[in-house]
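Marked as duplicate of an earlier ticket. Keeping the data here for the record.
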Amino acid sequence: MKTLLMLLTLPTLMAAQSAAAQDRKTRFPVGLYTTGNSDIYGLSVGIGSDTYTGSDTVSVRSNGIRIEPISQSLLFFTLIFPVDRVNYPNDEKDYAAFAKKIPNEVINGINLSCGTNAFADVNGVTISAVGQSLKNTNGISIGGMANYAFKNNGIQLSLFNSGALYSNGLMVGGYQTEVYRGRGLHVAFWFNEYKYFDGLMLGVCNGIISKPEQFRGLQIGLVNRTKKLRGIQIGLWNINEKRSMPFVNWSF
């Protein structure tokens, strides 16, 4: 019976998918990324971004250069428009479901803005003068004051805060870096915060504010802390599950 129902409904589903494909527009060489349901090749421009996380399909694909000259990040300084960042999950049990959500925008190429706060995937380079909040970044991500993503693969830089739930590569924060699970190299002038980390971590304080569970690799700072260490800590004071001691600490 189930097979029969599937065969009966198949033509309807195929027709709906075909209609949706026909409704999608192709824009070249210039298009507005705010129009939705379109593929833009060349220059993609608009004002503001969308942090909505309930999309059934990718609304806009920008291929080339995307420019966002005016955004919430810029208007924030007027004290009238609060910044609407991507609402990342706070509970670990929600991370997997959030990762499967479809971004409402995909940017392939270069994204330039005063601040992009969008539930978007960026494949390439994204540069924000003030700050940005995205779903996934693959490549180079540079933010002025703040730079956040759910998952970052590549290089993530910010003059103040850099953060991601998952990070693979280089993360630099002028003041702080924060990550749930990171791999690679993290550098901060003050604090590196994490829960799980594999690699090299450089900062004045590492794992002081958060509750770090595990560190594997080399940790260098004035104060280093982790619950479980597989590696070496070098600093004025070093804390792990075996001992707390100055200068050099280890656990293998």
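See parent ticket for discussion. Residues 1-20 have pLDDT under 50 and may be disordered.
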